[in-house]
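Here is a typical protein record:
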Amino acid sequence: MNPVALLTGIGSIVGAARSVTGALTKPHTKAADPASETFAAHLDEAIKRFMQSRDADKNGALSLAEMGGDKKTFAKLDVNGDGQLSAQELRALFATSQQPPAGAGSAPA
């Protein structure tokens, strides 16, 4: 399934992608070893924060109402068909590329 096609089908996912991209491009304030920070770790953290901001019932997953958008696209994202989007299902949108977008990442050392 093409992640770009999914992003165009659901308005809130476009917002989610922008949130994730924004989180990935913001400089980090914690002093850490830049070599140990990976794109995957940044992506996981951004998805975690996104989910926490929308998970109204605090069950660790997003319902259609919490996520927003249309049922058809939500159903495509809901790989296991349980009516909830997990962090793993959202992360799958970005699984086609493990490379950060242009301009993303930590500041040069």
